[in-house]
Amino acid sequence: MTTDVLVAVFAVAVVGLIVGFLVLETYNAVVALALRIDKAWANIDVALKQRHDMLPALVSAVRGVMQFEQDVLTDVARARAAYSPTEPIPTQAAVSEATSSAIRSLFAVVEQYPELKSQRNVLDLQDEIERIESVIADRRELYNDQVYRHNTRIAQVPALFLAPIFRWQARDFFEARPEEHARPDTELRST
Amino acid sequence: MTIVDGSDAPQVAVFAGGGLVAGLVLLVRGFSGYRMAIRISDTSTSRIASIAAGEVRVTGIVEPAEVLLVSSLQSVPCVYFRAAIRESRADDGDDAVLAEEHAVGFRIRDESGELRIFPRRARWDVPLRFDDRSSALDGEPAGLRPRTGSLHTLADPDRETQVAQLLGLDRASGGAPFTSGLGGTLPGVGLFHGTGSRQRRYSEARVEPGDTITVIGRALPFGDLSDPTEADLDDGEVLGADDPEVAASIAHARAAGTLLDDPDEAWGNAAIPGFGIGRPTRAPELDPAARPLDLAAASEAERFERTFDIAPEQLVLASAADARLLVAFGTPEAAAGRNETTFLIGLLGAVLAIGSAIALAFVVAAGIQA
Fold it and tell me: Which of the two ends of chain A, N or C, has the fewest CB atoms closer than 10 A to its terminal CB?
């Protein structure tokens, strides 16, 4: 084998090493991104479940005093009943937004009842639900950022060439679609 | 056409061989940089207040915890440093005179809260802050201020220590006021100064309180750390609870019922926050003849509890068996950009390696023909 051939083999080997490395790292990176999205979603789901579990306690704590605010309480109950972890993510986002909106309305009304504001358990529940709302907002931001990174990665070279082979697809953001905004699925269900 | 003159062939062969090796080394470093850039840029930043257990990326300002390190070459208080002194040899090579790397636990703060970092087994991506050479004409570099006292200093020294530091008593007395009781190395002043005409290169990388850093690691409850004391230090030589021999000893002690889970039971008064510095947060059990200790004031007690008494369920950041902690200097964008540059230099290294291989081939071919 001549030295020319040896040099050619070496050059091809180095280029092949670089290409192989990029393919391997890109594959691993996209898989890791997908897993981070799943984890970020699981963390949102935990917070949504916590909020879902706390709402009945809040409603029962204020129901006795807020006899004339049944609409607000019904909105909260409807939004809570619409929670379904098996629905597609945009649907869950719409339900979550509707729940947050109903909770904000409830808290605004609670402000008008001094006897409620002086009750320790109501204040504690309010603080805890506000904390969970804040956690949901932060984790939603984190989830959407992770989805953005995933979707950007698979739309760029070199992952763009690998996407059809490994069937990588863009993931849904945690946000309601326009049609979900118009008609959130907040039918009362027995849960 | 003669490309390589016969008399130049040995020199060309040496340069080509060197270029080949250097190019491949740069390529391997570039691969490492690419991996790190991907890890940094593909992870989203979590807000500390809403952090969840698992792998996370946080960005914020470094705050000290209990103790700080004093860097070797510039005596700067820091939470991490990597210092090296290399001395040139007559044959164009160099010798390592000093190579130190230490880290100590610290906190990172963003706009939402703070998080404790346990740096054991961490990987540090920190650029040099001091990089200078000695010379026969100018002597030692102007910025060289070798450490003369203890490796550790208190992060929040009391008044007497601050006065001693201001008056420079620590240097005159060999560092006694700075001594934290945790030990440390004292390399010796002579080690830092060059001899004769041999040129020295001094380099030091540091992470100081107030720096912006990016940390990627596993958020886990403090109670899940296998050995919090060991995890708080990274001196590269400490055996942790994951060492097979240490783990076997712990298992043996647990089986024999001599391993205590309660710090109060195991350490007595020493488990009381602030006891070690003479300001306990609650009354210790002392011998009647012993001098009673003043209890810490409410504000002090709150600070001591926060510093020394971490709740078992509190989330902290540390290395995991399957994921080493990564601490990178600067914002995520800056850290990723730095590593992408390393990758691009690695690609240039590949070009250098191929070019060197071609040159080497010409030399070999010329040798065969001759």
Answer: N
> How far does A141 lie from chain B, in Å, by closest CA?
9
Question: Is B13 part of any domain?
Answer: yes
Q: Which two tokens stand for residue B153?
A: 């200093």
**Distance between first and last Cα of chain B:** 14
Decide if B168 is inside a domain.
no
B35 contacts A25? CB cut-off 8 A: yes
Q: Residue A36 and residue B361: Cβ atoms within 8 Å?
A: no
- So where are chain A's domains? 3-182
Contact with chain B for residue A162, Cβ under 8 A: no
Q: How far apart are CA A96 and CA A85, in angstroms?
A: 11
ipTM score of complex: 0.72
Residue closest to A90 by CA, chosen among A167, A187, A179, A170? A179
Compare all CA atoms of chain A with the CA of B30 and give the residue at the minimum distance.
A18
CA atoms of A170 and A155, how far apart (whole Å): 9
Domain membership flag for residue B295 = no
Distance set, CA B96 to CA B88, B100, B202 (Å): 9, 11, 10
Give residue B115's Cα distance to chain centre. Answer: 18
Q: What is the DSSP string of B139-195?
A: BS-TT-----S-SEEESS--HHHHHHHHHTHHHHTTSGGG--SS------GGGGS--
Cα B71 versus chain centre, distance: 10
Q: What are phi and psi of B217, to 5 degrees?
A: -170, -170
| Chunked mean pLDDT (size 10), chain B, 370 residues | 62 88 94 92 89 89 90 93 86 80 93 91 92 79 86 73 61 36 43 64 94 93 75 63 73 78 75 76 82 78 70 85 88 94 95 91 78
The values of phi and psi at residue B194, to 5°, are: -70, 165
What is the domain extent for residue B269? 9-147+187-273+309-369
* Beta carbons of B31 and A10 less than 8 Å apart: no
Q: Looking at domain A3-182, which of 3.90.1720.10, 3.40.50.150, 1.20.1440.20, 1.10.760.10 is its CATH number?
A: 1.20.1440.20
B97 in any annotated domain: yes
**pTM, 2 dp:** 0.72
Percent of chain A scored above 90 by pLDDT? Answer: 24
Nearest CA in chain B to A33: B42
How far is the C-alpha of B324 from the C-alpha of B321, rounded, in Å? 7
- CB atoms A142 and B361 under 8 Å: no
Q: How many domains does chain B have?
A: 1
Q: Which residue of A has its CA nearest to B53?
A: A43
Q: Which of A29, A142, A149 sits opposite B46 (nearest CB)?
A: A142
Q: Tell me the mean pLDDT in the region A14-19.
A: 92
Taking the CA of residue B239 and the nearest CA in chain A, the distance in Å comes to 32
